[in-house]
Amino acid sequence: MQKAVLFILVSLFVQQSFGQGKSVWNVLADIKYGMRYDEDLEYDVEYPIFADKIKALEGKEVLIKGYMVPLDELMGQNFFVLSAFPYNMCFFCGGAGPETVMEVNTVKEIEFTEKPILIKGILELNQFDYNHMMYILNEATLAE
């Protein structure tokens, strides 16, 4: 119960802090999961099923605000993970779902910060490659 209340409060904070209208993170949260047999792994695996409104964003430039996940081996590179939530509440540490994070490939390096950043890039959806996250933002740059 306490975790659910905290999640709702953080969600409201994210919506209010990150601009007007519906946050891209809210749209990306509209997923379901299916099961399929993976021949490489030789067992059933879960995969995301993207809602039509998510599919409509694929290949398009999106503007999204989030927090850089401090991965020591990746800091200062052109690749990092962006989270809808601060580090202590993100998918890796705080129990949020995989729809709250995305891989980011940038045009040029973005210096690590604990503050939220606003970036834009081309959204790629990943349904079956388990070596990558379900959301990937390519050609990303800091938005002004």
What structural class is derived from the secondary structure elements?
Answer: alpha+beta
Write down how many β-strands occur, each being a DSSP E stretch of 2 or more residues. Answer: 7
Could you say what the CATH topology is called?
A: OB fold (Dihydrolipoamide Acetyltransferase, E2P)
CATH superfamily: Protein of unknown function (DUF3299)
Assembly status: single chain
Distance between the termini: 38 Å
Largest sheet: 5 strands, mixed, barrel
Order of strands in the sheet with the most strands? 3-4-5-7-6
CATH class: Mainly Beta
Question: Based on CA inertia axes, which overall geometry fits?
Answer: globular
Strand and helix order? HHEEHEEEEE
Low-pLDDT segments, ≥5 res: 1-21
Written account of the structure:
With 144 residues, the chain is an alpha+beta fold. The chain has a single domain, classed as OB fold (Dihydrolipoamide Acetyltransferase, E2P) (Beta Barrel), CATH 2.40.50.870. 17% of the residues lie in helices and 36% in strands. The chain has 3 helices and 7 strands. The strands form 2 sheets. Strands 3-4-5-7-6 form a 5-stranded mixed β-barrel. Strands 1-2 form a two-stranded antiparallel sheet. The longest helix has 16 residues, at 2-17. It starts with a helix and ends with a strand.
